[in-house]
Write a structure and sequence with these properties.
Blueprint lengths: L5 E8 L4 E7 L2 E3 L7 E4 L4 E4 L1 E6 L12 H10 L2 E6 L10 H14 L3 E6 L13 H6 L6 E3 L8 H11 L5 E4 L11 E4 L2 H6 L2 E3 L2 H17 L3 E3 L5 H12 L4 E5 L1 H5 L21 H13 L4 E2 L8 H4 L16 H10 L6 H16 L16 E4 L4 E3 L18 E3 L2 E6 L2 E5 L1
Parallel strand pairs: 1-4, 1-5, 6-7, 7-8, 8-9, 9-10, 10-13, 11-12, 13-14, 14-15
Antiparallel strand pairs: 1-2, 2-3, 5-16, 16-19, 17-18, 19-20
The chain binds zinc ion (ZN).
Length: 423
């Protein structure tokens, strides 16, 4: 895929460099090629294509909720040029063959690059390691492994997984949830609100005890741990400490944990049921601080589409998870950039450079300059709109931002020189 020739005139980079940008043969080039399509980008910014390390595409198994095609269209609308497809599909991505199937679906149907995440344990059961080496050497070239949706509870198995991937630089990404402290009935942040609503409490400590353990295992093995969807102040503090010790741990915050609080569930609206749960202001503030100072390395969407029949239940029975791809950039702009807490360059780092580096995805997460692959998003930093969940490329409607006034930044997304979205 070599894409089209483009001239993007007048766009400013995250670092503030204004200019005209020429794209030919899928790359930024020195001189305009003949016949390039011109986009007048005066007043717009040109950011590196966003990279998500944490996307549930639901194919195979739940094509009624999302497919590779619809999920990557949603990604393109959100400014993403690369998504990592989580392994908790049906069947689970736990063999080389299954990883290659998803990889090929991405090549066929993707409006963004689809990078396959492999399971750590067979069928996500937490008992036996999956074929991680074979997935890594397969055509899918798996580099990130996760049982997301489930925590790897067995510390010895977690140690073995870390040791196994170390020789090829694999990344073990953990869904940190002690399944005894926060069991199957736990569906709301343990607080006065969960008590009043009569919902099973999911205490903050159920996350941080696993984060603390995994930090020790990263130190023991010298292998990298990435903590998905960090949601508590204590986890941020532990990760900050671990980084100071030089322990190879990295972390993610989701847009919803940065923006939405546990009060959202007071009407029992299952759109706001998510795992880990939405928390209180002190936790939200700690996440924002952690993202600003680099303790938290990436924003990952945990885009989790669910069909209506899986959300249309009593709160305790509804599936956890919410959409994220289309509003992730808007939310980070709103809570981090608008208030001056983070620069545009930091945003480019947390949403593109860092996730591409952690996932080791060649050609993604590159600065906007001559020689880089033409993966980028044109952003209007001033546009705003009220989010309408019915105007979405996703097949699902569990959008927690519905009805909210937010930035509406994405003007166009270009992946490998090919236009994947234009407003
Ligand atoms: Zn998870």
């Amino acid at each position: 895929m070599n894409g089209q020739n483009w001239v993007i005139s007048g766009a400013r980079t995250a670092e503030g460099t204004p200019g005209d940008w020429y794209i030919s043969d899928g790359h930024f080039v020195e001189e305009p090629a003949s016949g390039g399509t011109r986009i007048d980008a005066d007043g717009l910014m040109i950011l590196p294509g966003l990279v998500d390390l944490h996307t549930h595409l639901r194919e195979p198994g739940r094509e009624d909720a999302e497919t590779v095609r619809s999920g990557t269209l949603a990604a393109a609308r959100g400014g993403f040029t690369c998504v990592h497809a989580m392994a908790n599909t049906d069947p689970v991505t736990d063999t080389a063959e299954k990883a290659e199937t998803i990889h090929d679906l991405g090549l066929r149907d993707g409006s963004a690059q689809v990078v396959v995440v492999g399971a750590i344990t067979k069928n996500l059961e937490g008992r036996e390691l999956a074929e991680m080496g074979l997935m890594a050497s397969s055509r899918a070239g798996v580099r990130v492994f996760s049982d997301d949706g489930h925590c790897v509870m067995d510390a010895l198995l977690m140690r073995r997984a870390l040791e196994w991937v170390r020789p090829f630089g694999g990344l073990i990404a953990q869904h940190a949830q002690d399944s005894h402290l926060a069991g199957s009935g736990a569906c709301a942040h343990e607080s006065e609100i969960s008590g009043r609503l009569g919902l099973g409490g999911w205490p903050a400590a159920a996350e941080s005890v696993i984060v603390a353990r995994d930090v020790q295992l990263a130190k023991l093995t010298g292998s990298k741990v990435h903590v998905y969807h960090v949601s508590t102040a204590e986890s941020v503090e532990i990760i900050r400490w671990a980084k100071k010790q030089g322990i190879p741990v990295t972390a993610e915050a989701t847009p919803h944990h940065l923006y939405l609080g546990t009060r959202e569930i007071e009407g029992y609206d299952t759109t706001f049921k998510v795992n880990p749960p939405l928390r209180t202001d002190e936790h939200i503030e700690a996440l924002r601080d952690g993202l600003a100072d680099g303790t938290i390395d990436t924003v990952g969407t945990d885009h989790a589409p669910h069909a209506v029949q899986d959300k249309d239940h009593a709160f305790i029975d509804a599936k956890p998870g919410m959409l994220g791809l289309e509003q992730a950039l808007a939310v980070v702009m709103e809570v981090m950039v608008a208030g001056g807490r983070m620069s545009w360059a930091d945003l480019a780092d947390r949403m593109s450079y860092a996730p591409a580096r952690l996932g080791r995805v060649p050609g993604q997460g590159q600065p906007i300059r001559v020689g880089s692959a033409a993966n980028f998003v044109l952003v209007d930093p001033t546009a705003r709109a009220v989010v309408d969940r019915n105007r979405s490329a996703s097949l699902s409607r569990n959008n927690p931002y519905h009805g909210r006034d937010l930035p509406d930044p994405v003007v166009a997304t270009i992946w490998g020189g090919r236009l994947t979205y234009r407003r």
